[in-house]
Design brief:
Shape: globular
Number of strands: 8
Largest sheet: 6 strands, mixed
Helix content: 40-55%
Distance between the termini: 38 Å
Structural class: alpha/beta
Number of helices: 8
Bound molecules: uracil
Radius of gyration: 16 Å
Oligomer: single chain
Strand content: 5-15%
Order of helices and strands: HEEHHEEEHEHHEEHH
CATH topology: Uracil-DNA Glycosylase, subunit E
Length: 202
């Protein structure tokens, strides 16, 4: 069954329920569940990540694994209360590949990102954020198009087809992947600075 968002969505709850049975691409087959966005409706800030990871897939909530902990720390240092923002992903099912006993993250492909975009559009329609923060290339390209480069345009407001200003920045996982403490600290500081820009602009 291919669930689609209702034409005039009323609430995030309604969307979450509908997305629970979405077979709009093949990712549902190997994922535990749909991981829909969460947070306050009418949040001033919406954060969009790539896709749920292993922990998110198991718990059914976005950004609750290692990247989520880093995001929460960065939000806190930027003076933003996670309880006051809406957090979601460009793709709502976990894409993974097996390596021994582990399920390794695999980047969603362009077709999967496209298939999931109507859910993101519907979330934006319901939440009506003042600013959308795009975390990493997948989220940024889902919203701004495939030619968009985070490295070139991070940290500043741009207009989007949603009529809502967006700001792109890195994905928190990229900070976790830093190879030494010094570059990790620098990457985290730059990320926090981007979040502060978003908080001021909403
Ligand atoms: N990475 C994401 O992009 N989203 C999550 O929810 C978790 C990790």
């Amino acid at each position: 069954m291919t669930a689609e968002p209702p034409e005039h969505p009323r609430s995030v709850e309604q969307l979450r329920e509908a997305a629970g049975s979405c077979h709009g691409c093949d990712l549902w087959e190997h994922a535990t569940q749909t991981v829909f966005g969460e947070g306050r409706e009418r949040s001033r800030l919406m954060l969009v990540g790539e896709q749920p990871g292993d922990q998110e897939d198991l718990q059914g909530r976005p950004f609750v694994g290692p990247a989520g902990r880093l995001l929460e720390k960065a939000l806190d240092q930027a003076g933003i209360d996670r309880g006051q923002v809406y957090v979601t992903n460009a793709v709502k099912h976990f894409r993974w590949t097996r390596r021994g006993k582990r399920r390794l993250h695999e980047k969603p492909n362009a077709g999967q990102v496209r298939a999931c975009r109507p859910w993101l559009e519907a979330e934006i329609e319901v939440v009506k954020p003042g600013v959308i923060v795009l975390l990493g290339a997948t989220a940024a390209q889902s919203v701004m198009g495939p030619a968009f480069r985070v490295s070139k345009d991070r940290g500043r407001f741009m207009s989007s087809s949603f009529g809502v200003p967006v700001e792109a920045t890195v994905h928190p996982s990229s900070i976790l992947r830093a190879t030494d403490d010094e570059s990790r600290e620098a990457a985290l500081a730059a990320f926090i600075s981007d979040l502060r820009v978003a908080a001021r602009g909403g």
